[in-house]
Design goal:
The complex is a heterotrimer.
Chain A: H1 2-20, E1 32-38, H2 45-63, E2 81-87, H3 92-104, E3 110-113, H4 117-130, E4 133-136, H5 143-148, E5 155-156, H6 163-176, E6 183-188, H7 191-207, E7 216-219, H8 227-235, E8 240-243, H9 247-259, H10 262-265, E9 267-270, H11 274-280, E10 289-290, H12 304-317, H13 323-343, H14 352-359, E11 363-364, E12 372-376, E13 381-384, E14 386-395, E15 400-409, H15 411-414, H16 422-427
Parallel strand pairs in A: 1-2, 1-3, 3-4, 4-5, 6-7, 6-8, 8-9, 9-10
Antiparallel strand pairs in A: 10-14, 11-12, 12-13, 14-15
Chain B: H1 8-23, H2 29-53, H3 61-78, H4 84-106, H5 111-129, E1 141-142, H6 156-182, H7 184-194, H8 196-201, H9 206-232, E2 234-235, H10 242-255, H11 261-280, H12 285-299, H13 305-331
Antiparallel strand pairs in B: 1-2
Helix pairs in contact in B: 1-6, 2-3, 2-6, 2-7, 2-9, 2-10, 2-11, 3-4, 3-9, 4-9, 6-9, 7-9, 10-11, 11-12
Chain C: H1 2-32, H2 39-59, H3 64-89, H4 99-121, H5 130-134, E1 137-140, E2 143-146, H6 147-169, H7 171-181, H8 183-188, H9 193-215, H10 226-240, H11 245-265, H12 270-284
Antiparallel strand pairs in C: 1-2
Helix pairs in contact in C: 1-6, 1-9, 1-10, 1-11, 2-3, 2-4, 2-9, 2-10, 3-9, 6-7, 10-11, 10-12, 11-12
The chains are: A alpha/beta, B mainly alpha, C mainly alpha.
Chain lengths: ~425, ~325, ~300
C-alpha cells in the first residue's frame, strides 16, 4: 500500500514535470514560420511521409538558397523559414486543437497541410476566423470552396481539385478505347472514393451517354483482402476498371488483382496510380492507365526547377519523388511566390492580407514544370494541367518506370471555369473548357 | 454540532465553473478550446463511469457522442435553429431516446458481451453514417456559429461565449448527475456490480436499474457530443468509431471513479497529454501516449483520483483534529 | 453458377484468414481471461518480420518454401519473445486487476508496438509478394485464384487441428484446459499455473505474428494495419464464443460467408456486414454460438 502510494506520487510528479517543462518556442521576428500538417502515422502515412520529406527538402534548400530560379532568393523573401511538423492522424477534432495550437501557441505565419477532405472542411472555417493563411495543400474535394467556405479569405488551395483527375481520366480512357461500352469501379468507402466514382461516372456519361456501369465496389479504408471484390469484377468483367485507391490499399489491390488476371480482362484506370509504381516498382500492372493527381513525377515537364527537384530528391531519399512530395513543394512555392510578389522588392515580413492579395490569380512555377494558376473561387483555388499515361515496363538501367503514350491536358480543359460548380460543369458537357 | 454538511463536490464544480468563466478571456484560445473539448469528453466519460460502477464496460459510448453531435448538426442544418440551449436539449433527448430503445435489449447482457454488443451497434452506425448523404458521408457536417438565448456573438466573442456555455453545461449536468448518484439509485448501481441476486432479493429489478443507468449514460453522451459538435463546429462519423469510445474508457481509468469530478479531471489531462505528446513528438506521439497510459495502469491502477482522495482525507483529518482540540480547549 | 462457386471460394479464403487472426486471441482469452487488443499489433509485427525475412531470403536466392519457412520462423520467434516480455513485465503484474484496466494496458501496448513498427520501417508500405507469385494460379469454377490463397485455407484448417489436438489429446493441453476451468484447483493439483499462463500468452502472441506473416505476401504491409484487424478478430471470437477454438472456426466461417455474400450480392452493405452479423448473433445467443455454459454467481 505504502509502496503504491509512493509510486503514485512519483508518477504524478513525473506528469507534472512533463507539463511544466514545455519548450517555449519564442517567435523570432525575422523569420517565416510555417506549420506543416501531414499524415505521419496510420494508413495515411504512406502518403504524408512523402509530403513531409518533400517539404523538409524544400525548406532546407530554400534556407540555403540552393533552389534554382525563380525561387533562388533564400528562404521566403530573404527570411529564413522555420518549419513545425504536426501529424494529421487522429481525426478532425484533434486537428482543430492542433491547428489552434499551431496558430496561437507556435504563432505560425502560414499553415500548409491537410490531406483528408474531412479535416479540410473542419479547419477552413476556423482558419477564416483566426485569420491565418492556410493552404489546404492536397485535399481534393471541390465542396471545400463550393459549400463549406464559399467566400474564402484566408483559405487557399495550391493543388487542383480531384475533378481534374476524374475528367482527364475519362477523356484519356475514351481516347484509348473509343468503342468502350462498360466500366466498373472499385473505390474506398469514404468521401474520396465515393466522390471520385460519382465524378468519373458523370464525366464518362457526359462524353459517351450510352456507357454502362455493371459493378461498383466500395471497400473499407485499410482492407487487406480484396478476394471477394476481385471475384465479382472477374465474374462480370467490364472493359475498363476505374479506381481511386491510394497508399497501401492501392498496392494490395494491384498485387491481388494482377495475380488473378483481372488486368487481362479489364483495362485499369488508376487516378493515383503512380503511387503504386513508387511502392511496387516493376510489379505495377503493365498496360494500365496511370495518373498522379497532377502532372507530377513521371509526367513532369523538364525545367531547371523540376530537374533540380528530381535530382535533389533522388540524392537525398534515393528514389523518384512521389506525388505527395510534389504537392508539398507546390504549396511552399505558391506561398513563397505570393510573399515575394507582395513584398515587391522590399525586405522583411509582409502582412498576411497582402500575401493573399498577391496570391489571387497568381501563376507560379512548380516542381513538376507545369505552372499552377490561382484561377478559381476568387483566386483561392489553383488549376493546373494534368497528364495520364500507360505504364509499359521497367527501365532496369535507370531504375525507373517507363511511361508511354503520355497525354497532357491543359488546365482550362479539365478544370471547371471560375464560378461554376464542378458537378454542374461536368453535367453541362464541360461548357467553357478550352482543350 | 448540527451544521448542515456542505457537499464539497457541488462546491468544487461551482467553484471551477466560476473560476473558468472569470478567467476565460485571459486564457489563450487554444487552451480554451482544449477546455471545451474536455467538458465534452468529461460528460461523455461520466456516462462510461456510471456504467462501470454497475460493472459494465461500454465500448459503444461513442454512439451517443455521435447522436448528440449529429443532432446539433442536423437541427442547425435542417431546422435552422442556432440556439445553443435548444440544440443541446434536442441532442440530449435524442440520445436518451436512442438509449432507451437500445437499453431495453442491451440491459440483459453483462461483462464482455455487453462491451462487444455496444461496440457492434456503434460500429454499424459508423458504417451507415459514412454512406448517408444527409450525414455528409465520411467528411461529416460543419456546424455554424451558435446563439445563446438571443445573444449572437461573432468573431473572438464567439469562442469565448462557447467556452463559458460549455463550462456551465458541464457544471449543471455534473451536479444533476452527482445528486442522482448520491441518491438511493446511485447506490443501487454499485450494488448491481457487487451482487445482482441480492439486489433482486431486495425487491429491485436489476434489468431496470441497468436500463436506467444506460439511458443516463446515453443522455450524458448526447450532451457531451453536442458540446463537442458546437465547439469543433464539425462532426464526423469518427465520433461513433470504437477508438473514440476507447478514449472515454481511458479517461475513466486514468482518473478513477470516485466522483463526478474524476472524469472531468481525466478528460482535461487526456487533452493536455495528447496535445503535448504530439507537439513534442510529432512522429511518435502514439507510442509516447501509449507509454504514459501503461505507466498509469502499472503504477497507479486505481486512477489518479485516489491521490486526491487521499490528500483530501488527510487534510480533513488534520482539520477535524485541530477543531476537535480547539473545541476540547473551550470545554476544559 | 460461377457466382456460387466464387462465393464459396471467397468465403472460405476469407474465413481462413479470419480464423488465423482470431485463434490466438481466443486462446489467450480462454486461459488468461483477457481480451488482448495488442493482438492487432502482434499481427502487424509478424507481417513486418515476414517482409524482412522474405526479403533477405530472396536476396540470398533461396527457394520459395525456404522463404516461407524463414518468414514463419522469424514471425513466430519474434511473437514468442514479445509475448514473453509482455506477459512477464506487464500483464503478469496485472492479474486480479479489473478487466477494463487490463484491456487498457493491452491497448497502450498496441499503440506502442504499432508506432514501433513505423520506427523500424518508415512510413511507407513494404512488400513480400515473391512466394505468392512463384506459387502460381489455379482455376476454380472458371475463375483464377492464386495457389497461395487456396493453400492458406488448408494451413488454417491444419492449424485448427493442431490446436485442437494439443488442447485435447496431450498432457500440456489438459493442464491448460484445467487452468481454464479453475486455476485455483489446478494450482492445488500441482499445475504450475503461472507457467501455463506465460506459455499460453507466448503461443497466442506467436499465433498473432504467424497470422501477420502468412498474410504479408498478399498485402501491402503498412503502418496502422492492425487497427482494422483487431475489431474483426473480436467479432469472430465473440460470434463463436469467447475462448472456444471450434467457436472461432465457426465464427470465421459465418463472417467470411457474410462478407463474401454481401460483396457479391449487396456491395452497399459490405462495410458493416461484420458488425450486423455480430449484433445479430449476440442478440440471439448472448454468449456466442459455442461458448461453454457459465454459472451465475450468487
Amino acid at each position: 500500500m505504502k509502496r503504491t502510494l509512493v509510486q503514485s506520487i512519483m508518477s504524478a510528479a513525473a506528469l507534472a514535470c512533463m507539463t511544466g517543462t514545455l519548450p517555449s518556442f519564442a517567435a523570432a521576428q525575422e523569420q517565416v514560420k510555417i506549420g506543416f500538417v501531414f499524415f505521419l502515422s496510420g494508413p495515411g502515412a504512406a502518403y504524408g511521409s512523402n509530403a513531409r520529406d518533400g517539404a523538409k527538402l524544400i525548406v532546407e534548400a530554400l534556407n540555403a538558397g540552393k533552389v534554382p530560379a525563380p525561387y533562388d532568393k533564400p528562404g521566403i523573401n530573404g527570411l529564413p523559414i522555420q518549419a513545425v511538423f504536426v501529424d494529421e492522424a487522429g481525426g478532425a477534432q484533434k486537428q482543430l486543437a492542433e491547428y489552434r495550437r499551431l496558430v496561437e501557441r507556435e504563432q505560425v505565419d502560414v499553415v500548409i497541410g491537410y490531406n483528408s477532405s474531412g479535416d479540410c472542411n473542419a479547419i477552413a472555417p476556423v482558419a477564416e476566423e483566426l485569420r491565418v493563411l492556410t493552404d489546404f495543400f492536397h485535399c481534393g474535394n471541390p465542396q471545400l470552396f463550393e459549400d463549406i467556405v464559399t467566400e474564402p479569405l484566408y483559405s487557399v488551395r495550391t493543388a487542383p481539385t480531384g475533378t481534374m483527375d476524374q475528367v482527364a481520366a475519362a477523356k484519356y480512357l475514351l481516347e484509348k478505347m473509343p468503342g468502350i461500352k462498360t466500366v466498373s469501379g472499385i473505390n474506398q468507402d469514404y468521401s474520396w472514393g465515393q466522390d471520385s466514382w460519382t465524378e468519373f461516372k458523370a464525366a464518362m456519361s457526359a462524353l459517351k451517354p450510352d456507357i454502362q456501369y455493371p459493378a461498383a465496389s466500395f471497400t473499407k479504408l485499410g482492407t487487406s483482402d480484396y478476394g471477394a471484390e476481385i471475384s465479382t469484377l472477374l465474374g462480370t468483367p467490364s472493359e475498363a476498371l476505374f479506381s481511386s485507391f491510394w497508399g497501401g490499399d492501392a498496392d494490395a489491390f494491384a498485387l491481388q488483382a494482377s495475380t488473378r488476371g483481372l488486368d487481362q480482362k479489364s483495362k485499369f484506370v488508376l487516378t493515383m496510380g503512380t503511387g503504386i509504381i513508387d511502392d511496387l516498382g516493376e510489379k505495377a500492372i503493365v498496360g494500365s492507365i496511370f495518373g498522379a493527381r497532377g502532372p507530377h513525377g513521371y509526367f513532369a515537364r523538364k525545367t531547371p526547377l523540376s530537374a533540380w527537384f528530381k535530382a535533389e530528391y533522388g540524392k537525398t531519399y534515393n528514389r523518384m519523388p512521389p506525388f505527395g512530395a510534389y504537392a508539398a513543394a507546390q504549396g511552399i512555392f505558391g506561398i513563397k511566390a505570393a510573399y515575394e510578389k507582395a513584398a515587391a522588392g522590399a525586405a522583411g515580413r509582409q502582412k498576411t492580407e497582402a500575401v493573399i492579395a498577391a496570391l489571387k490569380g497568381l501563376t507560379f512555377d512548380t516542381a513538376s514544370g507545369f505552372p499552377a494558376t490561382m484561377a478559381n473561387n476568387d483566386g483561392h483555388q489553383a488549376i493546373q494541367a494534368t497528364a495520364y499515361g500507360v505504364y509499359s515496363g521497367w527501365d532496369k538501367a535507370r531504375n525507373e518506370a517507363i511511361i508511354t503514350e503520355v497525354k497532357v491536358y491543359p488546365a482550362e480543359c479539365v478544370n471547371p471555369p471560375n464560378g461554376v460548380r464542378a458537378v454542374d460543369w461536368i453535367k453541362s458537357g464541360f461548357k467553357g473548357a478550352k482543350c | 454540532m448540527t451544521r448542515r454538511q456542505i457537499d464539497w463536490t457541488i462546491a468544487t464544480l461551482l467553484g471551477v465553473a466560476i473560476a473558468a468563466s472569470l478567467s476565460a478571456s485571459g486564457v489563450p484560445g487554444w487552451i480554451r478550446y482544449l477546455g471545451q473539448l474536455s467538458t465534452a469528453t468529461a460528460l461523455t466519460s461520466a456516462g462510461v463511469m456510471i456504467l462501470l460502477r454497475a460493472g459494465l464496460l461500454s465500448f459503444g459510448q461513442g454512439l451517443f457522442y455521435f447522436v448528440g453531435g449529429y443532432a446539433v448538426a442536423l437541427t442547425t442544418k435542417l431546422a435552422a435553429i442556432t440556439d445553443a440551449f435548444v440544440v443541446l436539449l434536442v441532442a440530449t433527448i435524442s440520445a436518451g431516446l436512442v438509449a432507451v430503445i437500445l437499453g431495453s435489449f442491451l440491459a440483459r447482457y453483462r461483462g464482455i458481451f455487453f462491451s462487444m454488443l455496444t461496440l457492434a451497434v456503434s460500429m454499424v452506425v459508423f458504417g451507415i453514417a459514412t454512406k448517408v448523404r444527409l450525414f455528409g458521408g465520411s467528411d461529416g457536417l460543419n456546424i455554424g456559429l451558435m446563439s445563446y438565448a438571443g445573444y449572437r456573438p461573432r468573431g473572438a466573442d464567439a469562442q469565448w461565449s462557447g467556452f463559458v456555455f460549455c463550462i456551465w453545461v458541464w457544471a449543471a449536468f455534473s451536479i444533476a448527475t452527482h445528486i442522482l448518484l448520491r441518491s438511493r439509485f446511485g447506490w443501487l448501481i454499485r450494488a448491481v456490480a457487487d451482487n445482482e441476486v441480492r439486489v433482486e432479493y431486495l425487491g429491485y429489478s436489476v434489468k431496470q436499474i441497468v436500463w436506467v443507468a444506460y439511458t443516463l449514460a446515453g443522455m450524458l453522451g448526447g450532451a457531451g457530443g453536442a458540446l463537442a459538435g458546437l465547439s469543433a463546429r464539425h462532426v464526423d462519423p469518427q465520433f461513433a468509431y470504437w477508438t473514440t469510445a476507447g478514449d472515454f474508457i481511458f479517461v475513466v481509468l486514468l482518473s478513477g471513479q470516485a466522483s463526478i469530478l474524476s472524469p472531468a479531471f481525466g478528460a482535461f489531462l487526456l487533452e493536455v497529454l495528447r496535445s503535448y505528446a504530439s507537439a513534442l513528438f510529432p512522429d511518435q506521439w502514439q507510442s509516447v501516449f501509449g507509454a504514459m497510459m501503461l505507466a498509469i495502469v502499472l503504477f497507479l491502477p486505481v486512477g489518479l483520483d485516489r491521490l486526491v482522495t487521499l490528500l483530501w482525507s488527510m487534510t480533513r483529518k488534520a482539520v477535524s483534529r485541530r477543531s476537535r482540540s480547539l473545541a476540547g480547549g473551550v470545554v476544559s | 453458377m460461377s457466382t456460387l462457386s466464387a462465393v464459396v471460394v471467397d468465403a472460405a479464403s476469407f474465413a481462413a484468414w479470419l480464423f488465423l487472426v482470431a485463434v490466438g486471441l481466443t486462446l489467450v482469452f480462454g486461459v488468461l481471461r483477457l481480451l488482448n487488443i495488442a493482438h492487432g499489433a502482434f499481427y502487424s509485427v509478424g507481417a513486418y518480420a515476414a517482409v524482412y525475412a522474405i526479403g533477405a531470403s530472396v536476396t540470398l536466392g533461396w527457394a520459395t518454401w525456404i522463404q516461407l519457412v524463414a518468414a514463419l520462423a522469424a514471425a513466430v520467434a519474434i511473437g514468442a519473445v514479445i509475448g514473453l516480455l509482455t506477459e512477464r513485465c506487464i500483464l503478469g503484474r496485472l492479474y486480479g486487476y479489473p478487466e477494463p484496466l487490463v484491456l487498457i494496458a493491452t491497448y497502450a501496448l498496441f499503440l506502442i508496438l504499432d508506432d514501433a513498427t513505423k520506427l523500424v520501417s518508415g512510413g511507407g508500405s513494404l512488400y513480400a509478394a515473391q512466394p505468392r507469385d512463384s506459387l502460381g494460379q489455379i482455376g476454380i469454377g472458371g475463375l483464377q485464384y492464386p495457389v497461395y490463397d487456396v493453400a492458406l485455407i488448408g494451413v488454417s484448417m491444419m492449424l485448427a487441428a493442431i490446436v485442437w489436438f494439443v488442447l485435447n489429446r496431450t498432457r500440456v493441453g489438459r493442464c491448460v484446459t484445467a487452468v481454464v476451468f479453475d486455476s485455483e484447483i489446478s494450482a492445488a493439483m500441482g499445475i504450475h499455473v503461472g507457467r501455463i499462463k506465460t506459455a499460453t500468452f507466448m503461443v497466442g502472441a506467436a499465433l498473432g505474428c504467424l497470422a501477420g506473416a502468412l498474410t504479408a505476401p498478399k498485402i501491402a504491409v503498412s503502418p496502422g494495419m492492425g487497427v482494422e484487424v483487431i475489431v474483426i478478430a473480436f467479432a469472430v471470437v465473440v460470434v463463436g464464443g469467447l475462448g472456444s477454438i471450434p467457436g472461432a472456426l465457426l465464427g470465421a466461417a459465418i463472417i467470411g460467408l457474410a462478407r463474401a455474400l454481401t460483396a457479391h450480392l449487396l456491395p452497399e452493405l459490405e462495410i458493416f456486414a461484420v458488425y450486423l452479423v455480430m449484433a445479430g448473433v449476440l442478440a440471439v445467443r448472448p454468449f456466442g454460438l459455442l461458448a461453454p455454459a457459465q454459472a451465475r454467481r450468487i
